[in-house]
Design brief:
Length: 110
């Protein structure tokens, strides 16, 4: 079995920040705020999968939210099966916004 993990977090139109996922020396930013000009006025959860290799399983929709369009296979390069590594999930402030917070719903590893 090849290693992988998923982060499920809230995305919204206001008062939400980005998340930064850190694994070893690699860093990946997950956008919490909808892109500028996006007309959505909703908050939904989103799941981002990180896998060491394999087929992209994340181009799908769940009944309460959406799963991102792609997986990032390079982020976990060099992580061996059955190994232990530290994973940090941190708030990454967005400039020119107040009341910033993040909501992590789950972090799943396999």
């Amino acid at each position: 079995t090849q290693p992988g993990f998923a982060v499920t977090y809230l995305r919204s139109y206001q008062n939400i920040s980005d998340l930064q996922v850190k694994l070893r020396k690699a860093t990946y930013t997950l956008r919490g705020h909808w892109p500028k000009g996006d007309s959505r006025k909703v908050s939904l959860y989103s799941t981002k999968w990180f896998r060491s290799h394999g087929r992209d399983i994340s181009k799908s929709t769940h009944r309460w939210g959406r799963i991102d369009k792609y997986s990032d296979f390079g982020f976990m390069k060099g992580v061996k099966p059955n190994s232990k590594v530290a994973l940090d999930v941190c708030l990454y402030p967005v400039q020119d916004q107040t009341g910033q917070k993040v909501k992590v719903i789950q972090v799943l590893s396999c």
